[in-house]
Design brief:
Strand content: under 5%
Helix content: over 70%
Distance between the termini: 34 Å
Structural class: mainly alpha
Oligomer: single chain
Mean pLDDT: 79
Largest sheet: none
Radius of gyration: 18 Å
Order of helices and strands: HHHHHHHHH
C-alpha cells in the first residue's frame, strides 16, 4: 500500500492533470451541452469505467506489453478515431431526424455509458498515460507494485470522476436555455459533431 504522504502527493498531481480541460472534459461537455446534465453524467461514468479498465491493465502489466507492440497501439488508435467519427455522423443524422420530428432524440443512458466506455477504451494514449504516470508513485519498499498501482488507479478514477462530473453539471446549467431553441440545438449538434472529429484527430496525431 502507498503511504499516506504518497497518496496525498499523487492526489495533488492527479488533480492538476484532470482539472485542466482535455479530451475527456471536451467529450463530457459536448454531451451535457447537447442532451443535458444526465447525459453528461452517464457519459462521464462510461469514461471513468474505461479509465478503471486502463488502470487495471497497467497494474497487471498489460499496458506495458501493449506499448511494446506499436502495431497494436496503432490499430486501437484507428478504431477509436473511427468510433468518434461515427459518433459525429450519428449526431448529425439524429439532428436531421429531429427536424422532421419535433420531439428531441435523447440517447438512452445505457448507450451514453457505452459510448463513453468505448471512447476511453479505444484511446491508446490513455493506456500509455497510466503506464507513464502511475509508476512514478510506486515505492518498492511499500510492497509489490501491482497492489500499489491498483490503489493509485482507483484514486485517479475517483478524482477524475469528481472533476468531469463538475464540468458536466456546469455545462448543462450554462446551456439549458440554448437547448430550448431549435436553431441553437442545430448549432450545438454541429459543434458536438465537430468536437468528436477533433477528438478523433487528437487520438491519431497528438
Amino acid at each position: 500500500m502507498p503511504s499516506l504522504e504518497m497518496l496525498m502527493a499523487f492526489a495533488g498531481a492527479t488533480l492538476l492533470v484532470v482539472a485542466i480541460p482535455g479530451p475527456s472534459v471536451a467529450y463530457v461537455v459536448a454531451r451535457s451541452t447537447q442532451h443535458g446534465r444526465a447525459a453528461g453524467l452517464f457519459s462521464m461514468l462510461g469514461l471513468e469505467a474505461g479509465a478503471a479498465v486502463h488502470a487495471a491493465l497497467a497494474a497487471a502489466g498489460v499496458a506495458a506489453l501493449l506499448a511494446l507492440v506499436p502495431l497494436g497501439l496503432e490499430v486501437v488508435g484507428w478504431a477509436g478515431a473511427a468510433y468518434l467519427v461515427w459518433m459525429a455522423v450519428r449526431t448529425v443524422r439524429e439532428r436531421a431526424a429531429e427536424q422532421e420530428d419535433p420531439g428531441p432524440i435523447v440517447p438512452q443512458r445505457g448507450r451514453l455509458f457505452l459510448d463513453g466506455l468505448l471512447v476511453d477504451l479505444l484511446n491508446p494514449k490513455t493506456a500509455l498515460f497510466f503506464l507513464a504516470f502511475l509508476p512514478q508513485f510506486v515505492r518498492p519498499d511499500r510492497g509489490p507494485s501491482a497492489p500499489q498501482l491498483a490503489v493509485l488507479g482507483a484514486l485517479f478514477v475517483l478524482i477524475a470522476a469528481a472533476c468531469d462530473s463538475t464540468y458536466a453539471v456546469l455545462a448543462a446549467r450554462l446551456t439549458v436555455r440554448l437547448r430550448g431553441s431549435r436553431t441553437a440545438q442545430r448549432r450545438i449538434a454541429l459543434a458536438t459533431a465537430a468536437v468528436y472529429v477533433v477528438l478523433a484527430v487528437v487520438v491519431l496525431v497528438v
